[in-house]
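USER:
Working in pairs, take the chain set out below, taking as long as you need, and write a paragraph about the fold.
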Amino acid sequence: MRIYLRRGLGAPAACQVPIQPAPVTAVCLDPTRPAPASDPASTSAAILLAAALLASVSLAACSAPAPREEPSIAEGAAPGDGLWITARDGTLLRVHVREPADPARGILLMVPGVTGLDARMEAPVTEPLAAAGFAVYALEPRGTGESGGPRGYAGNASLILDDLGRFAARARERAGQGGTAEGLPVFLFGHSMGGTFALALAAEMDPPPAGLVLVNPAYKYRPLKGATPGFGDYLRFAAYWIFAPRKPVVDMGGDPSLLEDPDDRAEAAERKASPAVQGLQSMASMTAARRIITAAPRNAGRLSAPGLIVEGKRDLLIDPAGTDEIAAAWGGRSIERVRVDGAHGRSSALAGMEAILGWLLKEAGR
């Protein structure tokens, strides 16, 4: 397994200041919208103004300790409880496994975004995949759920991709134990930010995956009611990006009632209530995610594997023009697209399940 290493952006978490502005709210099911403050061209004025406003803060505040590290494993969990992998910094990461009843015909890796996933909530998606003969592995990324690490801090882009590379290698190794899955095709499945993360992982996997399924992949965005930051939000983003980049202050769960689509509204409320989902994220996480997201077309062009893109007709967040760019850049054997009656979240995966299963079975049989 070769891991693509990139330099992370953002100042180190050298200090914290005793300023506690309210968390910034960005309403979406997954933190797919890049953090506005990470784009120097659009936020330099906000950063300068934030620096001026904070100039009166005593330098003694910078002697405050760095954010406290969480335990390596969430309280109550144990390394023997399910499948765990060890990250390069020693952090333990939780992997949920759903095995098929009969011998597997393929391996499917669910690639998450930085807020993580709730395995129980994903059951309507993973159950039919397992019933069709695919061993499904779902990663809880660092800082979420039972995985270790500070809550809301995903690391820089290099660390995120290294975690994903270890996840893919460990899942392939686990599935091959006993020879029952030797030579089985490995597929990647990613929704929203997980879709662009899957592109980055696939571009570096050796051997490459057998294919990718992307559901409403996050690359370009449309204004979404309740999710567009205001000027005050830009100031708070900038202040934290400068002084406390690892502090979880960006509320990606937001207020689900502001979402217009009923399917997305119900799913967002469920995710917000889930202890496995880490909706409150740091500016460091947002900066790292943006680096990976903006590389989506470039990573698509580096692929040798085929792909299926499922697009929800009711998705109000993702700009189809961005998906067009990903498809146009695709370097693999083929790219198929299907539009379904779904919104941004899980409803699109469920509406497209027949197409997803048909495509996976076709590619697994090659």
Observations:
- DSSP finds eleven helices and eleven strands in the chain.
